[in-house]
DNA sequence: GCGTCTAAATTGGAAATTCCAAGTCAGAAG
DNA sequence: CTTCTGACTTGGAATTTCCAATTTAGACGC
């Protein structure tokens, strides 16, 4: 039970309305285990027990994270029934969740590039159709790749104070 | 004080040797505040006091994170001297740290796409040369963009067990 | 010397989060 | 009605984060 705070209207798990996109995003996927759950979801895992075994995360935390990701619209809860068993829940990436492929992909790519594991890669990104290797990159509005060091973050309309773009 | 462990040869802060690239990456940038420090670094902030004021993070945590990011090779510690002041430290993205632009960019893009803030974007990604807007995307080995839902993660050589690629 | 100033930490203790082991719940099978 | 099993809860310990107060180390004036 989640300690029913007295008073406190409490919307249905409202997301943070932080100005910064990164803060809002990390409020959803930034806690311990969340991104690993999502990684596992991209590997086709869907059940509580699969996540539990693969991650080794505490079951109460896993439960809380799955609920949070469902509330945030990243995962979707479905029912399944194994023959001879009662109905249970499974968790599937939503459209929004599949959108995190770029986040997961860039984390994987950074790890491969700057902190490679001597034994090789556990996970490789390929085209679903022809299996050719893919990478994550910046592209301009015409779909042409742009070198990483040519991209800069500049203040948008919601910025409270300007900053000097790096480089 | 950081409890000087007796003995313990101590390599230069050995990273986790986890098989999974995401685990290795999150071991470096997955703790609270780390990615926001890096975001700020991309906004040109370099000093302890700048990070402190901009983030509102506790100073002990900020100190610990900066040290960890320096040890991990993401940030680099430099000395600067304000006229009439003693020498102090500033923190700058290394090559490895600048490589995190894709991670930060994909987090920003996901926030914009799936959890937009009513007031607009705080941060926009543009080409440093001609200021045209950029996005983060999957590209094949010839530099052609590939639709997000066409990318899948498949087991690499270091995978301990195979999995069904999603979709 | 001595006291003051300031940015960058460090420290002690409270609060929140995570971990772990054990327990509950709900249907299915016997 | 007893057992089994996957999906959670629960209580309490361990760890991490938070907060306020303090320390540190040079620069400055005296």
From TrEMBL, chains A, B:
InterPro entries: HTH_HxlR (IPR002577), WH-like_DNA-bd_sf (IPR036388), WH_DNA-bd_sf (IPR036390). The lineage of its organism: Bacteria, Bacillati, Actinomycetota, Actinomycetes, Micrococcales. Keywords: DNA-binding, Transcription, Transcription regulation. Residues 20-119 form the HTH hxlR-type domain. It comes from Herbiconiux daphne. This is Helix-turn-helix transcriptional regulator. It comes from the Bacteria. PANTHER family: TRANSCRIPTIONAL REGULATOR, MARR FAMILY, TRANSCRIPTIONAL REGULATORY PROTEIN.
């Amino acid at each position: 039970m989640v300690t029913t705070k007295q008073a406190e209207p409490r919307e249905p798990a409202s997301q943070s309305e932080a100005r910064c996109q990164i803060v809002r995003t990390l409020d959803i996927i930034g806690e311990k285990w969340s991104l690993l759950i999502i990684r596992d979801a991209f590997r086709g895992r869907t059940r509580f027990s699969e996540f539990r075994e693969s991650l080794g995360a505490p079951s109460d935390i896993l439960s809380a994270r799955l609920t949070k990701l469902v509330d945030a619209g990243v995962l979707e809860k479905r029912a399944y029934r194994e023959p001879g068993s009662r109905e249970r829940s499974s968790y599937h990436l939503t459209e929004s969740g599949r959108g995190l492929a770029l986040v997961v992909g860039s984390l994987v790519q950074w790890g491969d590039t700057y902190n490679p594991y001597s034994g090789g890669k556990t996970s490789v990104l390929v085209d679903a159709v022809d299996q050719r290797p893919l990478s994550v990159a910046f592209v301009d509005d015409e779909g042409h790749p742009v070198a990483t060091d040519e991209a800069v973050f500049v203040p948008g309309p919601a910025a409270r104070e300007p900053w000097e773009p790096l480089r």
